[in-house]
Amino acid sequence: MSEPTIFLDNLAMPESGRWHDGRLWFCNWIEQQVVAVDADGKTEYFPVPVEQLMGWSIDWLADGRMLTTGEKLRRYEPDGSVTVLAEQKANELVLDAHDNIYLNGADFNFAGGEAPKPGYIKLVTPDGQVRQVADEIQFPNGMVLTHDGRTLVISESFAGRLSAFDVEPDGGLSNRRVFAENLGPDGICLDAEGAIWVQTGGNAVVRVADGGEILQHIDLPENRAPFALTLADFNGPTLCILTSEWHADDSITDNLDRLKNGPRTGQIFTVPVSVGR
Question: What is the widest separation between alpha-carbon atoms in the chain?
Fold first, then answer.
């Protein structure tokens, strides 16, 4: 496998990578931007009204309208206006083929050093109803739905595992089980063969099969933490690794303070891969 190369740099904190409409999209936390970039590096920046500096994500409805999480779930209309779909604080989100929206979060101040509390997954249906469909998630992070829509996999960052659920006809989740463990999962992505690209907890990412078999391994430079992963099609299947400078010997609050107030050291690496989306 090729070595990862820098595709974009001088970012604040790139997160929530998505492949949409022929471009790589991501959240540039701290700068409060959504960024879209094509294979040639042509970049567009879109300011968003998310109030919290970190801990928000993007995705799209079937009709192409963008959603953001954060302190509220928002939808961005073609005329430039913004609609609040739910007064629900959330971190990550994923949508099914029917525009059911799965949100996750945890009600404690991670950035402020508050003691962790278990988190949840909530479902927002197209009619605006919100209900909780899973609990006791140990710091919920990235989520993916399998291509048939029948399984949801979530990162439990503080447990070091990926957990899977069956998706019920009404959108509920059941049959909780371990997809893979002994990892450091954050923002993840699913490939066409059902394997998941996920973080190890250090400066590396792996491709893991259901059951935990490691299929591929990619190392990153020292002090370069891979917070989010997505598969793009940049002249062929490409893994995009969204990273920020992170020092394992420093506290979480010190690392976050440096990201907010220090030099812009966020980078996105790309690696050609054999299996795409």
Answer: 48
